[in-house]
Design goal:
With about 170 residues, the protein is mostly helical. The protein has a single domain, classed as nmb1532 protein domain like (Four Helix Bundle (Hemerythrin (Met), subunit A), Up-down Bundle), CATH 1.20.120. The chain has a two-stranded antiparallel ribbon. The chain starts with a strand and ends with a helix. InterPro entries: Hemerythrin-like.
Length: about 170
C-alpha cells in the first residue's frame, strides 16, 4: 500500500513536499495523541507570535511574518475542525456516560470562532507588514498579538487539564 504524506511546517513556513512525514494510512491515531500534537503546533505558533511581538517595531523578520500570516488561519481551522468533529463528541460521550452535562463544549466552540476571526485579522496585518506596508502602530500590533497568544495558551491549558485526561483514559477505539 502506498504511504500517504502529511505536510509538516517548520518555523511556520508554508508546507512543502520535502517537509512531509511518511504516515502509514492503516494506523489510526488516538484522538488524545492527535490533540497533544495539535497543542504542540499551537504552542510553537504562540512562540513565533511572541517573538514577532518582541521584535516590534524595528527588527521584524518579514519572511517569518509572512510565513505566520500564511499558516495561522489554516492551522487553527484544521485543528478546530478535528476537535469539533472527533474530540468534542468523545468528550460529550464521556460526560453523558457519567451522567454529567456541561456547557464546556459550547464555550470551547465559541472560542474557536473568536480565535479564527482574530487570527484572520492578525494574518491581514502580517501580510501588510511582510510586504512592507505597515499602517498599524507597533504598540497596537503588540497588544493584539499578546492578547491572541495568551488566550490561545489558556485554551490549550484548559484542554490539557480537563479534556485530555477524560478522552485519553476513556478511548476504546
Amino acid at each position: 500500500m502506498p504511504r500517504k504524506e502529511v505536510p509538516v511546517a517548520s518555523s511556520y513556513e508554508a508546507p512543502r513536499d520535502d517537509k512531509a512525514l511518511p504516515v502509514d494510512p492503516t494506523i489510526e491515531l488516538l484522538p488524545a495523541a492527535v490533540m497533544k500534537r495539535a497543542h504542540h503546533e499551537k504552542l510553537r505558533l504562540c512562540q513565533a507570535l511572541e517573538e514577532i511581538a518582541d521584535a516590534l517595531p524595528g527588527s521584524v523578520d518579514r519572511r517569518k511574518v509572512l510565513g505566520v500570516a500564511n499558516t495561522l488561519v489554516p492551522l487553527l481551522s484544521s485543528i478546530h475542525h478535528y476537535e469539533e468533529a472527533v474530540v468534542f463528541p468523545l468528550y460529550d460521550a464521556v460526560l453523558d456516560a457519567s451522567g454529567t452535562r456541561s456547557s464546556t463544549v459550547r464555550r470551547l466552540k465559541a472560542e474557536h470562532v473568536q480565535d479564527e476571526c482574530f487570527a484572520g485579522e492578525i494574518a491581514e496585518v502580517f501580510l501588510a507588514i511582510g510586504h512592507g506596508k505597515g499602517g498599524e502602530s507597533a504598540d497596537a500590533i503588540g497588544f493584539m498579538l499578546r492578547g491572541f497568544f495568551e488566550a490561545l495558551r489558556r485554551h490549550i491549558a484548559f484542554e490539557r487539564e480537563h479534556i485530555l485526561p477524560m478522552i485519553g483514559s476513556s478511548y476504546t477505539g
